[in-house]
Amino acid sequence: MQLPFTKMHGAGNDFVVLDATTTPFDLSPEQLRRLGDRRFGVGCDQILVVERPAPGDDVDFRYRIFNNDGDEVEHCGNGARCFLRYVTSRGLTAQSVVRVRTVNAVLELALMPDGRVRVDMGPPRLVPESLPFEAGSLRPDPRGLWPLQLVDGVHVDAALISMGNPHAVLFVDDVDSAPVTLLGPQVQADPRFPQGVNVGFLQIQTRARARIRVYERGAGETLACGTGTCAAVVAGIRAGLLDPAVEVQARGGDLRIEWSGQATDSVFLIGPATLVFEGTISL
Ligand SMILES: N[C@H](CCC[C@H](N)C(=O)O)C(=O)O
């Protein structure tokens, strides 16, 4: 099969985008893993699929996300920005604001005058069951952090937040020296995350500036993670360490997160979305 695709990235988090608005999407997990393979395929962190909405569904598109391990997931914030850039640049919509349905949310995506994209990510989910996390008798400490005893006797204190997908957030003094590729898999190995977890490492510089690295579920460390950055800023605001608008430096670029601090209010993710190249792959 000859499959046309578009390669994109949002702050270095890279994607293969597939247009399934006219032909139904039917790739197997193995074909998705091939697409995502940086040696034997195109290579990306996630595959994004653009679909028309189901009949009668009051949204403009359906937005599906697959990690490069082939598993379908609930959300991808950097991908949402690229989704809007894609559908507007290819004439699939004439709107500058579109609403898209993911597996568990409706997101509103808006082109900004400066060329960035603003995503209404919906409100954070702040109860551990929403990740899911099986807390059992464990309770958070007074800071709202969960004391996790991991394999190999390693202990971490993490904020547990869902943005529709699961996140564990650790506060660190310096992201560059944080043991991301060691601790990330160790947190992910915790059986109390039955559907896995994305592991974020947040360095707070001022009340309005931070740095982040994320070891993602199903993709490993990426150069940026939109939902992970949202979850981390929510954790920082809830801890009283951040203001409602924060500029966050990820390894692949800069993101802006806005959240009032009210649990029912949406988190907003603002950042770039870049088209890199078009291609065709034989699958
Ligand atoms: N690895 C994530 C999906 C991609 C999220 C990330 N790339 C973003 O920009 O939000 C998960 O399994 O939940």
From TrEMBL:
<comment type="pathway">
    <text>Amino-acid biosynthesis; L-lysine biosynthesis via DAP pathway; DL-2,6-diaminopimelate from LL-2,6-diaminopimelate: step 1/1.</text>
</comment>
<feature type="binding site">
    <location>
        <position position="13"/>
    </location>
    <ligand>
        <name>substrate</name>
    </ligand>
</feature>
<keyword id="KW-0457">Lysine biosynthesis</keyword>
<feature type="binding site">
    <location>
        <position position="46"/>
    </location>
    <ligand>
        <name>substrate</name>
    </ligand>
</feature>
<feature type="binding site">
    <location>
        <begin position="226"/>
        <end position="227"/>
    </location>
    <ligand>
        <name>substrate</name>
    </ligand>
</feature>
<dbReference type="InterPro" id="IPR001653">
    <property type="entry name" value="DAP_epimerase_DapF"/>
</dbReference>
<keyword id="KW-0963">Cytoplasm</keyword>
<feature type="binding site">
    <location>
        <position position="67"/>
    </location>
    <ligand>
        <name>substrate</name>
    </ligand>
</feature>
<feature type="site" description="Could be important to modulate the pK values of the two catalytic cysteine residues">
    <location>
        <position position="167"/>
    </location>
</feature>
<comment type="subunit">
    <text>Homodimer.</text>
</comment>
<feature type="binding site">
    <location>
        <position position="198"/>
    </location>
    <ligand>
        <name>substrate</name>
    </ligand>
</feature>
<feature type="site" description="Could be important to modulate the pK values of the two catalytic cysteine residues">
    <location>
        <position position="216"/>
    </location>
</feature>
<comment type="similarity">
    <text>Belongs to the diaminopimelate epimerase family.</text>
</comment>
<keyword id="KW-0413">Isomerase</keyword>
<dbReference type="GO" id="GO:0009089">
    <property type="term" value="P:lysine biosynthetic process via diaminopimelate"/>
</dbReference>
<feature type="active site" description="Proton donor">
    <location>
        <position position="76"/>
    </location>
</feature>
<dbReference type="GO" id="GO:0008837">
    <property type="term" value="F:diaminopimelate epimerase activity"/>
</dbReference>
<comment type="function">
    <text>Catalyzes the stereoinversion of LL-2,6-diaminopimelate (L,L-DAP) to meso-diaminopimelate (meso-DAP), a precursor of L-lysine and an essential component of the bacterial peptidoglycan.</text>
</comment>
<keyword id="KW-0028">Amino-acid biosynthesis</keyword>
<protein>
    <recommendedName>
        <fullName>Diaminopimelate epimerase</fullName>
        <ecNumber>5.1.1.7</ecNumber>
    </recommendedName>
</protein>
<dbReference type="GO" id="GO:0005829">
    <property type="term" value="C:cytosol"/>
</dbReference>
<dbReference type="Pfam" id="PF01678">
    <property type="entry name" value="DAP_epimerase"/>
</dbReference>
<feature type="binding site">
    <location>
        <begin position="77"/>
        <end position="78"/>
    </location>
    <ligand>
        <name>substrate</name>
    </ligand>
</feature>
<feature type="active site" description="Proton acceptor">
    <location>
        <position position="225"/>
    </location>
</feature>
<feature type="binding site">
    <location>
        <begin position="216"/>
        <end position="217"/>
    </location>
    <ligand>
        <name>substrate</name>
    </ligand>
</feature>
<feature type="binding site">
    <location>
        <position position="165"/>
    </location>
    <ligand>
        <name>substrate</name>
    </ligand>
</feature>
